[in-house]
Amino acid sequence: MLKDWWAALxxxxxxxxxxxCRRPVDRxxxxxxxxxxxxxxxxxxxxxxxxxxxxxxxxxxxxxxGGVKKLIHALKFRGDSHAAASLAWxxxxxxxxxxxxxxxxxxxxxxxxxxxxxxxxxxxxxxxxAWAERQGWPWHDALARTRPTAPQWELAPAARRRNIxxxxxxxxxxxxxxxxxxLVDDIVTTGITMSECAKMLKRVGAAKVIGxxxxxxxxxx
Length: 221
Ligand SMILES: [Zn+2]
Known about the structure:
Layout: H1 2-13, H2 33-39, E1 40-44, E2 57-63, H3 66-78, H4 81-94, E3 105-108, H5 113-119, H6 123-134, E4 143-145, H7 157-164, E5 168-170, E6 180-188, H8 192-203, E7 208-216
Parallel strand pairs: 2-7, 3-6, 6-7
Antiparallel strand pairs: 1-2, 4-5
The protein binds zinc ion.
The site of zinc ion has 8 residues, from helix 2.
């Protein structure tokens, strides 16, 4: 009740605006229809020929471009909590969760602890966790980085697999064994990072690993 009143008051002082173009919208975090239409590109990635054998499939919601790119940047590098809310809104409002009906738990691709400490937050959890829990799926931080890795986008394609191999370990195998896991990350580039995580999850007995990223920076439509 107090929260509703407070939200209403804030709406008068700071009317909610589209995070991309600043047009007025009906609630905080929401996108205007024009920016939604320009940014949404929900699709299954074509994994054939990519040597990404450990993911059963991988779904993305947007291209890594335009407003989505701007907001992911603001969240990752400036810790902008409004950007986090706008990206979480996009997922909650526009992704059809029914396509993941078989999922039993959600696991994020982990940041290295050093990078997490430096930032003070984990952007993947800020984007996905509330959405996952609303679907009734437990959120398990079941993977850990075992060593720092260079950002994949800095490397030539051939070096990417080497960079990431053996960089992850499953910390809670009992939460994974026998289950269909939804593996989530903010951006998928080549899919090699997700595939390496999926490999480790399968190794401890995951029945199936499905990928989901907010944005894709490499795959064509
Ligand atoms: Zn807009």
